[in-house]
Structure to design on (412 residues):
């Protein structure tokens, strides 16, 4: 795959390595086996009742206006159910696709690359388009996205003698306020021990996991080493701590339980705070800039269309409706996501002023690597990051560099 930043099950092997050999074989242009039945089937993996209800309502509205039935199924295990559908040559017409699944589906011909056919193709944030582009083909429309930002406990902030003027905008300021907020059983900053959090410091230092076209690993770089050393320094000094070291499952839990005065999390934290920690007053700020400027990570899914679908034209029309500004703003209100189209940004900010830092990050967010096999590399990276306090940054980066380059080389 040559983009920046599930497995297709078969009766033989449920591994990423079997994707090419066990694909549907229909290709992207051969529609001879596809037969239209005038109906669309949609499969999603839902975050909860609110998301399910919102998507079901959107499908009902579209079916009523278009005259084409669109039925929703909610997967208990999206990857498994998609795999079964592809293996039986009966996939859903439209379905959620994550960035780490895209490469495998694209490689075996399961996905129809329709992105550039959308009337709103140019409205998506460029980095979100990049996340779903393989070998120059824009495969599928980003359905929404999230970024990482700095979440601050207002009570603990004021108790530390800090004001709005002290909200950190640089690494030095972040380290300084983290130190001031570290008192007793409370640590200044906490986040999960994983690339999906620690990796946000890489672009702030000018680093990345790969080069721009995703063909060369750039993990073992001076910029990434500077970023990792900065994180390690805060951990060593005790002004930052992994959520796991605080007895919490993730940064949001450590923050909600007020074990940490700040955390680095995505906009999904809003639901957890409302449901589990409603008494915690907090504010959100963009992540502080590093030596190279601002940086964060972007996380997204897309609306995939099956290459074997006999109703591609209707499926594209449905996706256009689901990704229209009004529809995305409705989804945002229903279950907290950020619209993937730029034309909805100002309205979303107006409706959610407290969360504006998340959507501001879209302008400079970096995509995690999504090449086939990259997820295994990231898993190993996460395991090594857990030992960062007692490890050497250069050793970790060198190890991950070799693993990721091997994945990229096999993808050429």
């Amino acid at each position: 795959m040559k983009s920046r930043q599930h497995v297709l099950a078969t009766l033989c092997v449920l591994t990423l390595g079997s994707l090419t050999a066990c694909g549907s074989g229909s290709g992207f242009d051969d529609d001879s086996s596809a037969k239209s039945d005038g109906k669309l089937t949609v499969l999603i993996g839902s975050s909860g009742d609110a998301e399910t209800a919102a998507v079901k309502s959107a499908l009902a509205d579209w079916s009523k206006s278009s005259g084409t039935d669109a039925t929703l199924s909610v997967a208990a295990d999206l990857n498994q159910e998609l795999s079964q559908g592809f293996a039986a040559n009966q996939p859903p017409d439209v379905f959620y696709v994550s960035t780490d699944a895209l490469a495998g589906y694209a490689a075996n011909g399961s996905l129809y690359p329709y992105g550039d056919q959308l009337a709103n193709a140019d409205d998506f944030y460029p980095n979100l388009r990049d996340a779903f582009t393989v070998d120059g083909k824009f495969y599928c429309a980003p359905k929404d996205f999230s970024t990482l930002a700095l979440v601050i406990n207002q009570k603990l902030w004021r108790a530390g003698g800090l004001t709005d003027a002290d909200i950190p905008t640089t690494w030095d300021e972040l380290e300084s306020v983290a130190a001031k907020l570290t008192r007793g059983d409370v640590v200044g900053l906490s986040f999960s021990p994983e690339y999906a959090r620690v990796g946000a410091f890489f672009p702030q230092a000018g680093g990345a996991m790969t080069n721009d076209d995703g063909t060369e690993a750039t993990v073992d770089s001076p910029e990434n080493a500077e970023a990792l050393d900065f994180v390690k320094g805060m951990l060593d000094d005790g002004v930052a701590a992994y959520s796991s070291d605080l007895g919490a499952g993730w940064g949001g839990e450590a923050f909600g339980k007020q074990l940490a005065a700040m955390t680095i999390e995505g906009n999904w934290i809003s639901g957890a705070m409302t449901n589990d920690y409603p008494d915690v007053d907090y504010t959100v700020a963009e992540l502080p800039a590093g030596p190279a400027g601002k940086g964060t990570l972007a996380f997204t899914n897309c609306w995939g269309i099956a290459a074997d679908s006999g109703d591609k034209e209707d499926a594209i029309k449905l996706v256009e409706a689901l990704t229209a500004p009004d529809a995305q703003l409705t989804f945002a209100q229903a279950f907290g996501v950020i619209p993937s189209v730029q034309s909805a940004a100002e309205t979303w900010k107006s409706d959610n002023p407290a969360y504006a830092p998340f959507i501001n990050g879209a302008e400079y967010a970096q995509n995690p690597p999504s090449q086939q096999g990259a997820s295994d590399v990231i898993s190993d990276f996460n395991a090594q990051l857990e030992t960062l306090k007692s490890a050497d940054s250069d050793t970790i980066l060198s190890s991950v560099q070799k693993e990721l380059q091997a994945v990229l080389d096999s993808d050429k």
Summary: The chain is about 40% helix and 15% strand. Confidence is low (pLDDT under 50) at residues 1-33. The longest helix spans residues 49-66. The chain has two domains: 16-146+299-366, 147-297+370-410.
